[in-house]
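Checked the freezer inventory, then went back to the computational side. Two predictions to log before the end of the day. The first one is the construct we discussed on Monday; recording sequence and tokens without edits.
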Amino acid sequence: MALMDDAEHPVPELWRAKFAEIAAALAAGDFQLCKSRVEGVEPVDRETAEHISANVAAYGDRLAPLDEATWHRSIYRWAGGYWEVLVDLSTVSEPVSDLTLHADVCEADCSRLKIKSVHVP
């Protein structure tokens, strides 16, 4: 169950598979999630996808499917009306990189999600 307080919490188990699907799509270069439809994820607009692509390219390492170690650093917190989620992505060289997926989860069961960005905070 997702908590609705001001504290940061580890990403709930229930949400992790969806974020793993998103990370796999990004690792495949599908920054708009057009080819890899992930249920409940809002379409990523072209401008956001281009921004994500540029940030990944600038990082200098290719994305990879999520390593289990990412869940030790990834967090969420209640933002009043939705949960802000930060998932540290995996790269070919790093099981947990500094590149972070920023998303908003609108339903406690993670059935509605919006990708905001991928960048180094």
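The second is the one RB wanted added to the comparison set:
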Amino acid sequence: MSTGNGCPDCERWERRFTDLERKFEALAKQLDEVAAKLAAATKNSSNSSKPPSSDIVKPIRPREPAGKRKKGGQKGHQRTIRPAVPEDELDWLAQYAFEQCPCCGGPVTTDSENPVSIVQQIEIVSRSETTEHRSLASHCAACDKTHVCTIPPEIRRAGLCGVELSSIIGFLKGACHASLATIRKYLRDVYDLKLSRGLLAKVIAKVSQAIAPLYEDLFGKLKAERILNIDETGHRDSGKRMWTWCFRGSGFTVFRIDPSRGSGVLLDVLGEEFNGIIGCDYFSAYHKYRGLTDCSIQFCFAHLIRELRFLKEHSTGRTHGWSSRLLDAIRDMFGVIHRRDELGGRFDGELEDAAMEVLTRARLRVPGDKKAHNLSARFANDGESYLKFLTTPGLEPTNNIAEQAIRFVVIDRKVTQGSKSEGGQRWLERIWTVMATCSDHDKSLLNVLRSSLNHFFRGERPPPLLPVG
């Protein structure tokens, strides 16, 4: 743009001003890009949906002044002592007594009923037992016929590895993240037992078949659940990208590996008639599934709080103030919940006011920041789905229980690098499901594997993990 007065100095300064304006706009844009990259680089488990295991550098906790607190149990802490093994459960009893007086060699009497001191010691006997099962022919002289007594079918079905050994192999592979090479080394060094990788793979396939009915029983219960918490994480099968879905119901957990992360998985697992409540994050698949069914949703408040914290930490001005005020309102609402007993008859009214304050602050004086606008729109569109836990007994405001259940899967993925076949996928689904459900009910996984294999080798269905009825 020119002034049109023909003044050379004016035109020169005008060109310089235009030049500087262009540079300023370019630098401002570059600064915004750098700020966005810096903000993304500082995401961690406290201000985003990233898991704690992804935190490369964790904040250093402030140390207490030296000498203020000693290591170990603190004063007043109740000591925990391991209970002694009852006498009727002992395998061996060793008693130490003098046969004669150590001073003069005279005769002594020993009080075996009241020992002066006791040391109980537990030892593991590392050995394997090999049994050869032989089928013999018997000839009848009366009818001149030969009869062969067959080996029991459960023995033939088990093959080289019996129930106990098969259970240990399945336990090592499923619960201990052990590779086939590691299992081979363990069996060789501990039991002096040499088994090939191929044989170990066949044993694991048998364990997978044995626990398949347990998995099917729990999978079938999902559709009838009133509340389901669901989460998903990545999975690799021979390098191919897949997804592990976690469905956590009342007292049990089910895992499903699928190539898709879409709503089709929810339709396959839960069907079109599911009318329970789903606790989940704000992923689009849950929105779509809600539109196709009569289900309700409780969106995870923990995810929302992390996103607001991130916005507060990496913004200024109106955006910083808006996110701070909204976080304060959410904190006040949960404060009311924690003071339920203290508030008594005033609880319902104060909780309703606190929840309304959250919705109001989310939609009041929303800044122009895109992230803030999106978060505000969530409350406008799905405020009821964020606050459903306030009016639904037994419903949690967060999806933490599903995220906790899926942590083992993430660890297993990092250690084992996933699966390598469809059979491997089914094994992981089944063993993870059985493990998580055993943990919920304080059951021994090894005992469940033993029982399942015993029934499987006999051609029977194993007893269910959960009580029937």
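For RB: DSSP finds 15 helices and seven strands in the chain. Residues 224-401 form one domain. Let me know if you want it refolded.
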